[in-house]
Amino acid sequence: MLSILAIAVGRIVRFIIRIFRRGGGSAFPGTVASSIAPNLLSDAIRSARHGLVVVSGSSGKSSTTQTLVALLRAHGYKVFTNPSTANIKQGLYAAILQFGDYRGHIDADFVVMEWDEGHGAALVESLHPRLAVLTNVYSDQLDRFVDPELVVEKLKKIYDHSDHAVINVDDKNLTQFVNPEKITGFGLSPSIQPRPSYAINFGPEPKFEPSVEVSKLGEKSLQVSVPARLLSFETKADAPHQALNLAASIAAVSKLIEPDWDLVEKTVSNLPPVFARDEIASVRGKDVRFLLCLNPTSFTHSLSEISDQTNPLMIMAGSDISDPSWLWTVDFSKLKHVDVVGGKNAYDLALRLMYQDVQVERIILEADKAADAFLELSGPSPTVLFTADAMRRTRRYLGLAK
């Protein structure tokens, strides 16, 4: 009875919010529902036929989740997921509101959820995943977690309370706490350079052979070796960290089902990008390119994807940057000018750009006003780089949020 009430009230709250805030309401209704029926999420997951799969780590969660969900669906399985990448507790409850029935039950074979490290660690004991996919530990988001060691502790808790785990065996932050009998490993071939730079860890470095290995990277293509097979993909996800996300998804699907490898190759090659991860969206008659920048590493990668001729260009730093000093670790020297700098931390970002001799045309803190000013500009390749908070506000204002 509480579940029925929670679903009804949560959906009403979601409806009201979306009347007044286009594209909004993805998390708060989940907070309301969870306060009414705390067991709503666990009851929904138990209604799935083949259990819960979670994806967590510092980076790569959304891409890994998207690919894994697509692979399972391509094989004919019904999958419930949190499609808006709302990976905190409230967002997970909100996904039940959106896609569950009136009792909060879901018609699914698998539940595949992206988990924030902190919220996942708090939920894992009660939800007990069948499989945990752990991507990496980077030295980012230190304003949230203070030290990467705390991220390791949270991921270890997720690992400890899961039946099995898919682990990045190149990251010794993860390999130090795992049991070889409880993991399926993925990683990069030793020949692939440069390699991702994981959080510094002075402990031992256990060695595990990956079951799934990225063996070759080319321009818009890559090869992944699985037992008795070499898979080839045509994909834009050809950077080492993106290839690892794909390897994680393949390792997970091979643990969950018997894959049709030809279907795996076809499915991956046809995948669209996760929203804002090098997404092209039509906005007011223009094709606008969106690049999400979560930390110094992804900022640097996004900058490598554009040229000094990209025009017009907007870069936004939102309220998710609690400590803007990390902007000074990003090299913006390839840029000549930026048309609009936006977001709550726009002045800090503009200062960093100007110190690197980048001409800044306009500074606008409000995401909606910055978006309007940017879209009034003409140019052949409108491009936006933004952090997560600025991304959510901008996409919501432009009507791109679902």
From TrEMBL:
GO MF annotation: an example: ATP binding
Lipid II isoglutaminyl synthase (glutamine-hydrolyzing) subunit MurT C-terminal domain segment(s): 293-369
Limits of the Mur ligase central domain: 55-253
Keyword line: ATP-binding, Ligase, Nucleotide-binding
UniProt xrefs under Pfam families: Mur_ligase_M (PF08245), MurT_C (PF08353)
PANTHER family referenced in this protein's UniProt entry, alphabetically: UDP-N-ACETYLMURAMOYL-TRIPEPTIDE--D-ALANYL-D-ALANINE LIGASE
Identification of the protein by name: Unannotated protein
Natural source organism: freshwater metagenome
Species lineage: unclassified sequences, metagenomes, ecological metagenomes
